[in-house]
Automatic annotation (TrEMBL):
<dbReference type="GO" id="GO:0030295">
    <property type="term" value="F:protein kinase activator activity"/>
</dbReference>
<keyword id="KW-0687">Ribonucleoprotein</keyword>
<dbReference type="GO" id="GO:0022625">
    <property type="term" value="C:cytosolic large ribosomal subunit"/>
</dbReference>
<feature type="region of interest" description="Disordered">
    <location>
        <begin position="51"/>
        <end position="82"/>
    </location>
</feature>
<dbReference type="GO" id="GO:0003735">
    <property type="term" value="F:structural constituent of ribosome"/>
</dbReference>
<feature type="compositionally biased region" description="Basic and acidic residues">
    <location>
        <begin position="58"/>
        <end position="68"/>
    </location>
</feature>
<dbReference type="InterPro" id="IPR027534">
    <property type="entry name" value="Ribosomal_P1/P2"/>
</dbReference>
<dbReference type="GO" id="GO:0006414">
    <property type="term" value="P:translational elongation"/>
</dbReference>
<dbReference type="Pfam" id="PF00428">
    <property type="entry name" value="Ribosomal_60s"/>
</dbReference>
<protein>
    <recommendedName>
        <fullName>60S acidic ribosomal protein P1</fullName>
    </recommendedName>
</protein>
<keyword id="KW-0689">Ribosomal protein</keyword>
<comment type="similarity">
    <text>Belongs to the eukaryotic ribosomal protein P1/P2 family.</text>
</comment>
<dbReference type="GO" id="GO:0002181">
    <property type="term" value="P:cytoplasmic translation"/>
</dbReference>
<dbReference type="InterPro" id="IPR038716">
    <property type="entry name" value="P1/P2_N_sf"/>
</dbReference>
<dbReference type="GO" id="GO:0043021">
    <property type="term" value="F:ribonucleoprotein complex binding"/>
</dbReference>
Length: 82
């Protein structure tokens, strides 16, 4: 299968080291590639949405930490303009 991938890449005028085609062929060995390709649209949206939630949560935590730092200066009894 690695040879077929290398032939396909050459026909597309793409240069890839043979190690990558071998690794890709081994990763796909025993898999139903046609089924995976037909399900790409259905599975593609869920991981993207799931990936956005942790990023938003991390940004909120960062903002909360920054607000906590600003408030902690007031607790010490002095501020920027004292």
């Amino acid at each position: 299968m690695a040879d077929k991938l290398q032939t396909l890449l050459k026909a597309a005028n793409v240069t890839v080291e043979s190690i990558w085609t071998s690794l890709f062929a081994k990763a796909l060995e025993g898999k139903d590639v046609a089924a995976m390709l037909s399900n790409v649209g259905a599975a593609g949206a869920a991981p993207a949405a799931a990936g956005a939630a942790p990023v938003a949560a991390a940004e909120e935590k960062k903002e909360e930490k920054e607000e906590a730092k600003e408030e902690s200066d007031d607790d010490m009894g002095f501020g920027l303009f004292d």
